[in-house]
Each structure stands twice: as structure tokens, then as C-alpha cells.
Amino acid sequence: MSLPSDKVTTEQLTLTCDDCIDDDVTVQQSAEKQHQRQSQRQHYRKHQHQHQHQQQQQQQQQHQQCMFNSNVNADKRPQKAENDLSLKIKYKRSESKNKKTQSLFELFFEMVGEKEQRTREMGTLILLGTMFLFFIISLTGFFVMWFTEYYNNIFLSNLVLSRNSETAQKWMNPNSKYDTFLKVHIFNYTNIKDYLEGKAEKIQIKDLGPLTYKEHTTKVNVVFNDNYTVTFRDHRNYEFLPDKSSYGEHEKIFVPNVPLLAADFLIDQMRGLKKMTASMAIKTIGGNAFKTLTPLQYLWGYRDKISSLNFASGKSHFGLLMNRNGTSLDSLQINTGEDDLRKFGVVTQFNGMPLLDFWSEEQCNRIDGSDPSMFPPHLIENRSTLNVFLQVLCRKIPLKFEKQVTIFNNIEALRYRTPMNMFSHPSENSENECYCRNTQKCLPSGIINATKCYDNIPIYPSSPHFFAAEPDIYKHLDGIEPRQELHQTFADIHPRFGFPINGASRIQINIAVHKGSIVEQQLRRLRRDTILPLIWIEITTGDFTEDIIDTLYASTYGLNLIQCSLKYGTLLMCLIFFTIIVASFYCLAKKREIQLEKGEKILKAELKALNRIHLSSASLAQMQS
């Protein structure tokens, strides 16, 4: 078997053989040793053959390894460099394995930390959500309390006159604790005979009164309609109160003969045979322009022959306040406020008609005033002008806000008064133009012509003692002393509920002397259409009991305190929750910023480590190449 001709193997074999021969030279050259040497040579050749085979396998493996390394970074490397690279790779692998193990622990703890952090963040988000919910609730409450009437409407809804409601029952049958008084002042003519005979320059009159009556009012013939209105009539009874009166009902008074003066006016409007017949009938009955009566007769009625002729009232009895006692002849329809509180108490019909027929234009005939006992709350809140429909005038009158006052037990109220120009001439108050049928014949400022309202009796109402009227109207009278605090109408109205809790409604009834054929001779000294005052009346509220005052006090200050607490409480809660939410978002943003900075630092460190590894790999690649 021939030896391989490979140079490296032969040299190795030669060196080995020389070593063996050198070892055997010192020994005897015997046949046994040669035989032994041949045996060793055979054994060595066999061993060399195996060694060559192993080297070939090792070279193939190294070649494969070099080819693999050449795909990564380099070509074939020297054996020594391969050994160094192998050691370094093993070290790096070991180091990488340790780092991976360490990274696994770090990842585990990082995952645990992230879970805890997420839990904390979730709790923070839940807390923020709760805070935001409370903020929305507070904001809603703030909006409702500051910019809507919801709070007031909760309480005002109890005022509506719904069918079978407790409020409606109290309205129809008021509690006797709520006293209303009618105070009547009668003008007594003390020197009319002397004046008519020319013995006096002026007519001397004296204000007798008040004669005070307690008024008991109920609502009868009440019908609740489907259009949120209620129709009714007032039923009144009066009880004379001597201890509150300065004049008796049975005292003597000398006053104008109203039925005669009314008949004189009516007959003068007639023509032909009818006028002549009526005039003869009145002259047959006879009568003076002034007569002696008692206050009881003058106010509440007495049998009068002229009245029985149906020239004036169409009744056999006459009394200035006779129609006021008992069930009223007039029916009213007002809004209940169920559909709209802004319409609460507004009169919609008078005697079944949506418009009056007493005045020249629709503007004055419209019934858009309120019942005197109730007003729309929104008008009170805005201090708007209130229009009140008065049956005694057959028209509405304005009430204008004057000031805020305190009454009773320091209860706040809003004072409204009738304006000074309420009965002024159209040249001074254009709103009164439609109350005058002919502007060239309009009455002077201070009185109005309500003839049609009083069955064609020439009644000319005014303020008591001709307050705010032109002096020419009463220049023939002595005893007229107008004073604002005594003779002007005012009302102190509850600022929240809109009903009067104090006040005085004042009106004076006058008659115009027409000087027809009946009384012309008796009243020859009087000018035509001279105004003679008859009575003036004042309707007031009485002194409230302690429990009523306590109720008013609680409804005023208690509800105001609750409202203020809710208004400013919701505002404070809005600010608190808004501050908490903003602060929480700021803290979260700051924490997120810190985490980003920390992550950025870690990322930079990782990039640096990767760069070092890349440089090490590049260095190894250069060494291999």
C-alpha cells in the first residue's frame, strides 16, 4: 500500500520515524528490534492513515465553518485566527447568554412593574372619570341655577289653578285669616244751598270716613275650561266694623241725588215724544239735585222712585255699591297658568267677550291685564310694568315698579305704583288717546269718562281727591286735599310668587252735571259738565297673623337661602372639580414626560451597546479577513 504523497503528511511521518530511529540507535541492532520497528511502522502507518482521515474530516468541517463565516463577514481564515475567533465567539455567546438571562429577569420585573403601573393608571383614569362626571353634574346644576327658571318654576308650579288642586280650592274659598277691608270715604256737601243761592264762593265738602267693612269673597259658578282657563264670578259679603270706622252707617249725610242727575243726562239724549214723556214723568215725581241720606242707604241701596222708572239702572233701588254686594253681574275668565306660567292670572274674557266695547279703538278694548290678586311671576322678576284689569273702570291700568321695601317682619317686597299720568290727557300720555272718543273733547288730565261702563250714567272716575289732576277740575270745591301717600294706588308684591301681600287700591267716583231740562233751574250756578265727587274707596289687606307672617318669612328668606346655596354651591363645585381635573391631567402629562425621558435614556443606552457590539463584530471581521 503506497503512502500518500501529501507533503505535510510525509514530513510529519519522517519526523516521527526519525524520532523512532533515533530512539532505537542506542539499542542493539538486533533482529527483534527491527522486527519491532517494522511492527511500529505498520502500526504508525495505520495510525497515520486514521489520522489523515480525521484531518480530512476536520478540514472539511473547518472549510464548512469558514464558508459559513465568509457568508457573515469574512472569507477563509488562518487556523490560529479561527481558534482565537472561536474562543471570542464562545465568550461572547456566554456573555450574551448571561445578558439574556439577566434580561429575562429584568423583563419579568419590568412586566410586573408595567402591570402595577397600568393598574395605577387605570385607577387614575377611573378617578378622573368620576371627577369628570361630578363636574358635568355640577356644571349642569350651575347652568340650571344661574341661567334658567327651573328652581323658581318648581315652587311656582304649585300656584297654578289646576282643577281640584289645593291652590284652586284656597283661591275659590280663601282662608278667613286673609282679611281684606273696604274703606269708604263719603263727600258730604255742607253748604250747597248757600252756594246755589250765591252766598258762598265755593262748594264746601267734607271727607267723612272711613267707613270700614270686612270683605268676604268667594268664587262662584267656577268652570275650568279645556284651554287652561277658568271662568267665575265673585261673590262678596260685607261686614261693617264700627271700631275701625270714624263715621256711622246711620248718620246723616247731604249728597248729590245721583238717580236724578243720571235721569237728567239720559233724558237729554232722547228725542221727540219719548223725551217729552220722560221729562214729564220726572217732573211729576219731583226731587232735588241734592238729598239727605244715611251712608247705609247711599252705599248699599234705597228705594228710589226715579230708579223704578228704568231710566238709569233699571232697578227700583239705587246704591253706589249695591252691585258690589252679593254675586257680581260680571263674569271673568282668567288663565290658570297650567300651560304657561307667563300667562298666569291674565284676564282673557270679560262677560264672555275677548274684547270690550266701551272704547274707540281695539288697543284700549283689549283685555290683557291681570287679575288684581295675582300677577305673572316673570313680570315681577323683570320689574316690568304690570297691567291690572279693573271692573270698576272697565279698563286696565298700569302699575310701575318704584322700589324695594320691607314690611311686617322685615319681609322684602316690591312696591308698584300707578303712574302720575295714568288719567292724563292724550297730549301728555299718548296711551290714553284711545280712551277718548273725540280728542277735541277729551277731558282734562286727571279724570276719565266711564259713562258706557256705568249703564250710561255720567260717571267720571279719578284718583281720590283728584290726585294728579288739573286744578281746574276742582277749583269750585273747597275741601280737596290730594296727597300721594293717602290717595295713590300702590301694591307691595311678593318678589317670588307674584301675589300682593300689602297695598291699597284707591279710586274716586265722580258724577258730571249735564244741566239738562230737569235740573237746569236748580243748578243754574254750576257750569255744564261740572264734576261733583261722590265717594272714594280704598281696598286694603289687613294685618296678617303671626303664622302667616312666619310662612311669608320662610317663603322669602328660606327659599332665597336655598337658592343662593345651590347657585354658589354649584359654582364652587364646578371650580373644585375643574381644578382637580386640570391638576390630574397636568400630573399625568408630567409623569408621562418623565417616563418618556427615562425611556429615551434607556433607548440611548441600548443603542450605545448595540454600537459597541457592532464595532466588536467589525473588528473580528477585519481580523478574520
From TrEMBL:
Question: What family does this belong to?
Answer: Belongs to the CD36 family.
**Any GO CC annotation of this UniProt entry:** plasma membrane
> Which GO molecular function terms does the record list?
scavenger receptor activity
Keyword set includes Transmembrane helix: yes
Any stretches that span the bilayer, and where are they? 125-147, 568-589
User: What ranges does the record list as Low complexity composition bias?
Assistant: 53-65
Q: Where is this region: Disordered?
A: 28-65
Name listed for the protein in its UniProt record? Scavenger receptor class B member 1 isoform X2
Q: For bias kind Basic residues, which ranges apply?
A: 36-52
Which InterPro entries does this entry report, sorted A to Z? CD36_fam (IPR002159)
Keywords attached to this entry: Cell membrane, Glycoprotein, Membrane, Receptor, Transmembrane, Transmembrane helix
One Pfam family in the UniProt entry:
CD36
What is the annotated localization of this protein? Cell membrane
Which gene name belongs to this protein? LOC119635615
Tagged with keyword Chloroplast? no
